Amino acid sequence: xxxxxAAERAIRPIALGRKNWLFAGSDKGGERAAAILSLIxxxxxxGLDPEAYLRDVLTRIADHPINRIDELLPWNLEIPSxxx
Length: 84
What we know:
Elements: H1 5-21, H2 27-45, H3 50-60
Domain Transposase IS66 central: 2-31
Protein name: Transposase
Organism: Xaviernesmea rhizosphaerae
């Protein structure tokens, strides 16, 4: 049977905070929280510091062409000083 410890470790903070996030305000608020948490965990899995990744993306995204938005995904973005 395959080992799923990495997956369980990745979702542990989400499971621990579930009660606090119960009151996201609305279904849309919950969806937004899920999207942000997905970006954070994906950044970690790709060896990026999540805070540095989000800071970099948020400074670039307004001027970034919509047809090239995939360039800002964690597995495509290189943040030299933050790369593990």
